[in-house]
Amino acid sequence: MNDGNSAREAELVRAHLHRLVEDVEPRPDALPRLLAAARRRRSPRRPLIAALGAVGAAAVAFLVAVVFVPQQPELAPVSVQPNTYLAAPQPGVIASFDVLSGQENSQVATVTGADTTVLAADRDRVYTVVSTADGRRVAEVSARGQRVLPGKVGDSRVLAAGGGRVAYLDGTDVVVVHDQQQHRIPVPAHLRVEDLALAADGRLAVLVTPRDGGQASSVLVLPPDATSLSARVEATSGEACGPVAVAWTGRDVAALQPVDCADDRLRVATFAGDSGRKIGAGTVFRTPPLAPGSARLSTDVLGRFLVSTAGQGQWLVDGSAVRPIPPACTTDGVCAAGPGTFWG
């Protein structure tokens, strides 16, 4: 009897296990339901993946554009060519000329209302005097265009540029403009300014003559931002006849100076900029008689000097070699009325 009960209990346990297995077996549509649920769970990611893909493609396109799109050209500076100088063959027209042949290379600028017989240059910037509704002003010509500097010009005979500065005359003062600011250097009443020259470090050379004519002209060297002629170094050779024009050559001062008061021989003498001591006599050459302020002396990057006058000739001084050069004339035969100047 006990064996029968045991067999019956075993059958009951087996039947119960079958029911449990039936409960965990999948229904016939379980697999399609499972796949559909999986697709529904993945479907929200599709727009995100697509968006990320679009962003990545845009980034790649941007990088390709940055690499392959040509850059915009920068403004080129005013063209400075070797062996060239500036002169004004026509009113308001500034042109570049070959220093050896005198042929016109190109027009640099046209400045309305300019007195282009007065020119100065500082590297690739060119300066002249213009007439405006507010009086005469200094105009700057560069790669960025033209602009008028602050301050009126009282005497347009003299104009100098160098080291980012411009110097000119206004009344009895020498005016120096730097960074749109100007400061004045009073000139004593008994002196007349004949020429100015600015060094790269801001020092100013002033060629003065006594108004009474009793003494020779002299060159006064002033430190940067000087406010009077008293803080000066005088460049003098002790000769009876003083200089007629002045320029800077590196850290030294060059002066176009007569050899003797009685003849027409001149030379470009050199003076130490810090002491005024004469350090170079210069080669002698002949010119027409030149008074202080009647010639312009300028230098180029090779250390050569251009001696230029208004209709009285031009000379290139290259060490011990001096040669006359043709006047600055256009192909139409129009020649500059004022002296020329090296630039660059």
UniProtKB/TrEMBL annotation:
Domain named FbpC C-terminal regulatory nucleotide binding: residues: 126-176
Sequence intervals crossing the membrane: 48-69
Keywords: Membrane, Transmembrane, Transmembrane helix
Pfam families: FbpC_C_terminal (PF17845)
SUPFAM superfamilies reported in the protein's UniProt record: YVTN repeat-like/Quinoprotein amine dehydrogenase
Signal sequence, start to end: none
Transmembrane listed as a keyword: yes
The keyword Transmembrane is assigned to this record: yes
Full protein name: FbpC C-terminal regulatory nucleotide binding domain-containing protein
Species whose genome carries this gene: Saccharopolyspora thermophila
